[in-house]
Amino acid sequence: MSERELLASDGERDRAAERVREAAAEGRIRLPDVDGRLSQVYEARTRGDLELATRDLPEPRVVDERPTSRAAVAIFGGYDRGGHWVVPAKFTAWSMFGGGGIDLTEAQLTSRETAITVVALWGGADIVVPDDVEVEVKGFGIFGGFGKSGRNRGRPGAPRIVIRGFAMFGGVGTRKKPRKDRKGLTQD
Q1: Label partner for 166 (CA 20 to 30 A): which of 5, 45, 124, 156?
Q2: The whole model's pTM is what?
Q3: What are the residues facing 172 on neighbouring strands?
Q4: Distance in Å from the first CA to the final CA of the chain
Q5: How far is CA 110 from the centre of its chain?
Q6: Where do the coiled-coil regions begin and end (predicted)?
Q7: Nearest partner of 91 among 63, 123, 117, 65, judged by Cα
């Protein structure tokens, strides 16, 4: 029996579906074609069937770098995370009597979902996210503000960024901006 004739596992189908979603997020597959591809993947019986559904898609990328940093702290000062940097699945930003900026438009995400926790006391933070990702803001302000609450959908299959935390006597703002490096989307 050849490799292509072996029965496909649930895990192999899930990984193939992730490749389809990633290709859609990168604009390689038109949105009307995504459902058909996913149906083909989940109905696949053999590894050969999976190969047919994904043969024209690039192999998944895996970030082989360690996260640049896991936290940013500013006390009577500031922090700035931007440019090319590797973002962990969980990142914490903390400021007191200061502030900072987090720019993800050139960043490499190490996970399909990135959680950013922001605490701003008598200070603030400005978070810039790529316009093609899904963003959910779950923070609140006390004598201050915390960005736009709710969810902002990105492209189908795109990474998800969840921003949570609070601001007291300060503010946390989020805004979307076009991605500078389309290769920043990664997969677990």
Answers
A1: 156
A2: 0.64
A3: 125, 146
A4: 31
A5: 8
A6: none
A7: 117
